[in-house]
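Propose amino acids for all 478 sites.
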C-alpha cells in the first residue's frame, strides 16, 4: 500500500483524477502555501483531501493532526492513516507532541511516506491537547522546547527519508499568544527563539490568542479578536522569514484580494472550516483567483463528482486487491455532503445520501445481495439535483452567506411533480458492482425529492427489496 499510494506509481489511479495534476504544468511563481487548507481533526482525511485536490490543483493540503505516541506504538495505524495517493501532492503532515525524542521517532516513521512538509502543532487550544496532552497551544509558553522539537523532527525526517527524496520542510502553526502571555513582545520573542534555535523559516499564524481556561475550541475560533496587524508586524520585524495567516477569510477570492493589497500583501493564507462547510464556494476557483491559472480545475460540480467517484472506485479496488476491508461508503461520501451548500436542492442531496447509504447497509447485511459501489451511490445522488445546478461554473466572487453548515430549504414549493429513471451500468466482475437490471428512481416534488435504487433481478429479489424497504421505514420510525 505504501509504495502504490505514496511512491509515485500507485497501481490503478484513474486517468480522470490524475488529470487534475497533469494539467497543472504552469508557472510555479506562486507557491502552494499561498493558499492552504488547515489541519482539522475528523475533517481533513485522505478522502477529503482527494476531493479538495479535484477542486484545486495548486493549494497546499494539511492532514489531521497525528499524535507522536500513536504513530510510535501503533504500526497498523501508521499503515492505515499515513499513506496517501501520489497525485495528492502538495500535502503537509501535522504532528502533535511535546517530547523531542518521541517527535524524532514519529517524524522518522512519517518520512518514507513522502510528505512535502511536516508541521508542529503549537496552536490547538482543546483541553485534550493543550491541557492533559501538554502540547498544542500550551507549547507557546516554552519557545526553547518548540525549537528543540523542530530540530528533533528535522533529524528524524533526515534519517528515514527515501533515497534521493528531499527532506520535508519543518514548520510551526501557532497562535498570537496564550492566556496572559498575549503581548506582541512575547510573540516576537517566540518567533525569534524558534527561528534561530530551531532553524524554522516558515510560520503559520492563527491571528488570535488562545484562551485555555474556560472556553471551548469553537469559542477560541471566534471570541478572541483577530489581530492581522500583529502578523504584518512580524513580517516587518523578520523579513527573512515567511508567515502564513489563518483567520477571518473563507473563500479563495478573499485570499486573492488580501494577497494583492493590504498589510499582508504577498503572504500565504490558510482557510479552515469554510473549506469543508462550503467546498465549492471556497475551493473551486482557487487556481484562477490565487494561482493565476487560465481555467479552474473542474468546470462544474458534475465533473467534480464524477472524478471523485472514480477515486472511490480506486480506493475500493485497491482494498480488494490487498485483501482488506474497503472504507465504509459513508466515510467516502462524507467529503461531498456540503458540495451544494446554499444551492437549490442541498437538502435533497443530503437526505438522498442518507437514504441510499441506509439502503446499501441493509443489502450488505444480506449475504445473497450485491452491495453497490460508492461511485454508484454518488451517481444516484446526482439525480436529485437539477442540471443547471450540477453544471453551474465555479463562482466568480466570494460567498456572502453565513458560516454555518445548516441546510437551506428550497423556496419554490410549487415546482411540478418530477419523476425520472436512470439505468446504472452493471459490472459482472466488480467486487461491489450493482449488476444488471438495477435502476435509480427519482420522484417527489423538488423540496422533498428522493432517489431510490431499485433492484430487478427477479421476483424473489424484488420481494426481498420490498421487505428491506419496510424494515428501513420501521427503523426510521423507531
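Proposal:
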Amino acid at each position: 500500500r505504501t509504495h502504490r499510494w505514496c511512491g509515485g506509481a500507485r497501481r490503478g489511479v484513474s486517468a480522470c483524477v490524475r488529470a487534475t495534476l497533469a494539467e497543472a504544468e504552469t508557472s510555479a511563481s506562486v507557491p502552494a502555501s499561498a493558499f492552504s487548507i488547515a489541519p482539522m481533526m475528523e475533517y481533513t482525511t485522505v478522502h477529503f483531501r482527494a476531493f479538495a485536490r479535484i477542486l484545486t490543483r495548486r493549494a497546499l493540503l494539511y492532514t489531521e493532526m497525528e499524535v507522536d505516541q500513536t504513530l510510535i506504538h501503533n504500526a497498523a495505524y501508521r499503515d492505515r492513516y499515513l499513506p496517501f495517493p501520489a497525485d495528492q501532492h502538495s500535502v503537509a503532515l501535522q504532528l502533535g507532541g511535546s517530547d523531542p525524542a518521541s517527535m524524532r521517532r514519529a517524524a522518522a516513521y512519517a518520512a518514507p511516506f513522502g510528505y512535502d512538509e511536516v508541521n508542529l502543532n503549537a496552536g490547538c487550544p482543546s483541553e485534550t491537547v493543550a491541557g492533559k496532552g501538554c502540547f498544542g497551544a500550551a507549547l507557546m509558553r516554552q519557545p526553547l522546547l518548540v525549537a528543540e522539537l523542530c530540530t528533533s523532527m528535522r533529524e528524524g525526517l533526515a534519517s528515514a527519508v527515501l533515497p534521493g527524496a528531499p527532506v520535508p520542510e519543518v514548520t510551526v502553526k501557532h497562535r498570537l499568544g496564550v492566556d496572559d502571555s498575549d503581548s506582541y513582545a512575547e510573540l516576537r520573542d517566540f518567533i525569534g527563539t524558534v527561528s534561530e534555535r530551531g532553524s524554522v523559516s516558515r510560520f503559520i499564524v492563527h491571528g488570535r490568542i488562545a484562551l485555555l481556561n474556560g472556553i471551548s475550541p469553537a469559542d477560541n475560533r471566534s471570541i478572541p479578536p483577530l489581530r492581522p496587524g500583529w502578523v504584518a508586524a512580524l513580517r516587518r520585524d523578520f523579513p527573512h522569514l515567511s508567515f502564513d495567516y489563518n483567520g477571518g477569510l473563507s473563500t479563495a477570492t478573499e485570499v486573492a484580494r488580501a494577497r494583492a493589497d493590504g498589510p499582508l500583501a504577498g503572504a500565504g493564507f490558510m482557510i479552515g472550516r469554510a473549506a469543508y462547510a462550503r467546498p465549492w464556494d471556497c475551493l473551486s476557483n482557487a487556481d484562477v483567483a490565487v494561482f493565476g491559472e487560465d481555467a479552474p480545475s473542474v468546470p462544474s460540480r458534475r465533473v467534480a463528482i464524477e472524478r471523485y467517484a472514480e477515486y472511490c472506485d480506486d480506493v475500493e479496488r485497491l482494498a480488494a486487491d490487498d485483501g482488506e476491508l474497503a472504507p465504509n461508503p459513508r466515510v467516502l461520501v462524507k467529503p461531498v455532503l456540503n458540495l451544494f451548500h446554499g444551492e437549490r436542492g442541498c437538502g435533497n442531496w443530503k437526505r438522498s445520501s442518507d437514504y441510499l447509504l441506509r439502503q446499501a447497509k441493509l443489502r450488505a447485511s444480506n449475504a445473497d445481495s450485491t452491495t453497490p459501489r460508492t461511485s454508484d451511490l454518488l451517481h444516484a445522488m446526482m439525480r436529485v439535483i437539477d442540471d443547471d445546478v450540477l453544471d453551474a461554473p465555479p463562482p466568480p466572487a466570494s460567498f456572502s452567506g453565513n458560516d454555518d453548515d445548516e441546510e437551506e430549504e428550497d423556496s419554490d414549493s410549487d415546482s411540478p411533480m418530477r419523476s425520472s429513471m436512470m439505468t446504472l451500468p452493471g459490472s459482472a466482475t466488480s467486487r461491489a458492482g450493482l449488476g444488471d437490471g438495477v435502476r435509480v428512481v427519482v420522484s417527489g416534488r423538488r423540496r422533498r425529492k428522493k432517489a431510490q435504487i431499485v433492484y430487478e433481478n427477479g421476483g424473489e429479489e424484488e420481494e426481498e427489496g420490498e421487505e428491506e424497504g419496510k424494515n428501513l421505514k420501521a427503523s426510521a420510525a423507531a
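Residues 4 and 11 are 6 Å apart (CA to CA). Confidence is low (pLDDT under 50) at residues 7-27, 397-439, 453-478.
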